[in-house]
Amino acid sequence: DEMMEIDRLRKMQHYEKREMERQYKQVEGANIIKKQINENEQRRILEDEKREQEKLAMLRYLEKLQKQWYQRRVRGGGWMRLRRRSWTSSREREYRQSTSTRLPDGL
User: Fold this and answer.
1) Averaged pLDDT score across all residues of the chain
2) The pLDDT of residue 79 is above 60
3) Cα–Cα distance, 101 to 92 (Å, whole number)
């Protein structure tokens, strides 16, 4: 009878030890998951900040381009007047060439 009781106590101790190990592993696993969640959140925050910085840099660049465009436009009529003048003169040249009389080849 005493042997059976000792055996029963050993089995209970073994069961308690296994249960403690299982709980420890469960807590350890939960801690690992929490750590991963925190790391992922920090990474997302950094990526969001980086995207925001890139967005601000792009907006500053676009503002700079707009200012340059406006300054060119204000100074002397800007590039559009030059472009129109160039287009008009090329169209006039084409018209003159098409309306001028040409001598046949070989003469």
Assistant:
1) 84
2) no
3) 16
